[in-house]
Structures are given as structure tokens and as C-alpha cells.
């Protein structure tokens, strides 16, 4: 014996029985829910909307995703590019407004007076972002030509950039 499942058996019963039975059958087939409304002033609607927005996750909600090399490298590329640009523009503006203080002779004299560990730390802080941004830029240029676009190749080139960044940073620091 087959079981009666779904809305079809209820509708069949409603079609063949009396009007009262039909209304009962239709009421049992249709799910109803109560709706309440409340009259609010226009200013309250803006407050409700702001409260709803605070509860929404930011988009994209990256806290639910596992970190991946591709998007970490993208974020690092943007951060290093921004930092290097800020450094270049900052020094350029400083030289523009105070050329006697920021000329080559004064900078060399200032750096010569620093302890060795400060010089190496400063070189590292300049060399690492420069090397990473330059090498990752070459990776992006290769992508623009249509090369290394598969997932496997993207990861290989990402690890190659990280390795080459480490080697070139050490080479630049030891110069």
C-alpha cells in the first residue's frame, strides 16, 4: 500500500467532499503564521536599519575561510606597495621642504653614526618589502601574459616568490 504524502491527497479529498470538509482540508494543507505589525515613526526605521547592519558580517567574511597563499600574497603585495610608496613620497616631500637637512651628505653622516645592528635592521626593513613587491610584480606580469594561471602554478610561483624574496633580502642586507 502506498503512503499518501504531499499536498495532492489533501486536494483530492477537498475536491470530492462537502464545502465544510473542503475548507478544513485546505486549511490543514496551507501553513499559516501570524503577522504582527507595529506603527513606528520615520526616525525609528533608520535606527532599526542601523542595528541590522551592525549584525551583518563584513563582506567578504574572510574569518570563515582558511588562509590561502594567493590572497595572503595579494594583501602583502598591496601593503608593501603602499609602504614603499609612502616612504618614497615622504622622503621626496622632506627633501623638497628641507633640502639642506635631507641631502645625501647629511643622510650618509647620520647613518654612519648608527650602531651596526640598527643599520642591518634598517636594511632588512627596506630590503624585504622591496624584494617581495618587485618579485611578486614579476609574477603578476607573468599572469598578465596568460602564464601560470592554474591553481598548481599559482602556488608554485607563490612559493618561488617567497623563496626568492628570502634569498634576495639576505643578499641586499649583506651588501
Total beta-strand segments:
0
Average pLDDT for all residues: 86
Class inferred from helices and paired strands: mainly alpha
Q: With helices defined by DSSP (H or I, 4 residues minimum), what is the helix count?
A: 7
Detailed description of the structure:
- The protein is mostly helical and 175 residues long.
- It has helices at residues 8-16, 19-29, 42-55, 69-97, 104-112, 116-144, 151-173.
- Helix 4 packs across helix 6 (116-144).
- The longest helix has 29 residues, at 69-97.
- The mean pLDDT is 86.
Task: List the SSEs and their pairings.
Elements: H1 8-16, H2 19-29, H3 42-55, H4 69-97, H5 104-112, H6 116-144, H7 151-173
Quick take:
The protein is mainly α and 175 residues long.
Key structural traits:
single chain, 175 residues, mainly alpha, 7 helices, elongated
Amino acid at each position: 500500500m502506498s503512503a499518501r504524502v504531499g499536498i495532492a491527497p489533501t486536494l483530492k479529498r477537498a475536491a470530492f467532499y462537502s464545502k465544510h470538509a473542503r475548507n478544513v482540508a485546505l486549511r490543514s494543507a496551507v501553513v499559516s503564521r501570524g503577522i504582527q505589525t507595529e506603527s513606528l515613526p520615520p526616525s525609528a526605521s533608520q535606527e532599526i536599519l542601523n542595528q541590522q547592519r551592525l549584525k551583518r558580517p563584513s563582506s567578504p567574511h574572510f574569518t570563515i575561510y582558511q588562509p590561502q597563499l594567493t590572497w595572503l600574497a595579494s594583501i602583502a603585495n598591496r601593503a608593501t606597495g603602499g609602504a614603499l610608496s609612502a616612504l618614497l613620497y615622504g622622503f621626496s616631500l622632506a627633501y623638497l621642504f628641507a633640502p639642506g637637512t635631507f641631502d645625501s651628505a647629511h643622510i650618509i653622516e647620520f647613518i654612519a653614526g648608527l650602531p651596526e645592528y640598527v643599520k642591518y635592521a634598517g636594511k632588512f626593513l627596506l630590503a624585504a618589502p622591496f624584494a617581495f613587491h618587485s618579485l611578486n610584480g614579476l609574477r603578476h606580469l607573468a599572469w598578465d601574459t596568460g602564464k601560470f594561471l592554474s591553481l598548481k602554478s599559482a602556488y608554485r610561483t607563490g612559493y618561488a616568490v617567497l623563496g626568492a624574496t628570502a634569498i634576495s633580502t639576505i643578499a641586499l642586507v649583506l651588501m
